[in-house]
Amino acid sequence: MRRWLVLGNLLVPLGLAVWLGGCASLGVGEPIEVNVANLTPLPSTAYEHRLRVDLRLRNPNDHAYQIDGVRFVLDVNGRRLASGVSDQKATLPRLGETVVSVTTTTSLLDIVNQLVTIGEQSQRERPSFDYQLRGRIFVSHSWGGLDFSRKGSTRDWGTQAAAR
Questions:
Q1: Is residue 121 in a domain?
Q2: Which among 130, 62, 142, 133 has a CA at the least distance from the CA of 100?
Q3: How confident is the model at residue 126, as a pLDDT?
Q4: CATH assignment of the domain containing 62
Q5: Contact, 68 vs 89, CB < 8 A?
Q6: What is the helix (H) or strand (E) element at residue 146, kind and residue range?
Q7: 10 in a domain, yes or no?
Q8: Does residue 142 carry a pLDDT above 80?
Q9: How many domains are there within the chain?
Q10: Do 108 and 47 meet the contact criterion of CB atoms below 8 Å apart?
Q11: How far is Cα 79 from Cα 75, in angstroms, rounded to an integer?
């Protein structure tokens, strides 16, 4: 019995080291870049609006990923606009990109909140759209996934155009 306890005390740390090494092998050198490539309206109801959002995933790393799904939330002007999930499988090639389509849902209340925010902005200043896209890319044969976050603003568009 004592031999089993000694053997167990050796195997548990060894197993933990192998498991952690497997997680570390997923290691991303640089984060995956995620951008909205296209928005397509889908059949909706008065209370629920649906869109197909095409996300462009760009891999700046020297190894490919087998994508197993995506989930994300899109906030505009600090308020939730839409969220979505997809179990679409795709290959994200090394130093390459792919597009994944995600069906999103937004409620009438989310749209009303956006309209109120735009109305409040237009009384104070020129309306702008500040957005944050955040979520997770699920990778096959790995535990967890790769989180992503991207922020932007239409305020930046004027300064970028002026800089060119």
A1: yes
A2: 133
A3: 66
A4: 2.60.40.10
A5: yes
A6: strand 145-153
A7: no
A8: no
A9: 1
A10: yes
A11: 5
State the pairing for strand pair 33-41/48-58: antiparallel
Is 7 within the bounds of a domain?
A: no
The count of other CB atoms within 10 Å of the CB of residue 80 is: 16
Q: What is the DSSP string of 2-15?
A: HHHHHHHHHHHHHH
Report the DSSP beta bridge partners of residue 53. 39, 102
Question: Mean pLDDT of all residues in the chain?
Answer: 79
Whether 143 is in a domain gets the answer yes
The residue assigned the tokens 């989930």 is 71
The domain in which residue 68 lies consists of 30-155
Q: Residues of the chain with pLDDT > 90: what percent?
A: 40
Alpha-carbon distance of 65 to 34, in angstroms, equals 14
Residue 34: exposure state from Cβ atoms within 10 A (0-12, 13-18, ≥19) = buried
